Amino acid sequence: MKTEIGLLLLRIVVGITFLIHGLDKFNGGIEGTVASFVDMGFPGFLAYVVTFAEVLGGLALIIGLFTRVVSIVFAIIMGVAIYQVKLSAGFLGGYELDLVLLASSLMLALSGSRLVAVNRLLPGGLKKL
Fold it and tell me: What domain range is 70 assigned to?
């Protein structure tokens, strides 16, 4: 039971963190985020993909819906962010938060989080997502 409580807390905190980061990408207009992605060498449309993944995925984690799938998506986003954008800045002031979010996302992807989760209401095999 202690492990499930820990996973619930981790799921909610990671969900809130991604939700807020996603909403922040709309701050001042999504166009600024698109420009930032282009400046970093990514296609502009990826700004929309990442932003909506963070907002919708963050909400999904908070309520416990498709925790494993969402966490895999977040782990990919963080892995790319670390490798392509933050690695050159070093650990402190660079990729430390991204690394914690990557490790947390991997933990949730591997373990899931069933306590107080909408997934428990889904039929059969969908419960495991």
Answer: 2-114
pTM of the predicted model as reported, rounded to 2 decimal places:
0.92
Give the mean model confidence (pLDDT) for residues 119-128. Answer: 77
Domain count, the chain: 1
Dump pLDDT digits (tens) for 80-118. 999 999 999 999 999 999 999 999 999 999 999 989 999
Decide if 123 is inside a domain: no
Q: What is the DSSP letter of 59?
A: H
Angle between the N-to-C axes of helices 2-24 and 45-63, in degrees from 0 to 180, rounded to the nearest 10: 150
Q: Is 47 a domain residue?
A: yes
Q: How far apart are CA 13 and CA 26, in angstroms?
A: 21
Residue 67 Rama label (left phi>0; alpha psi -120 to 50; beta): alpha
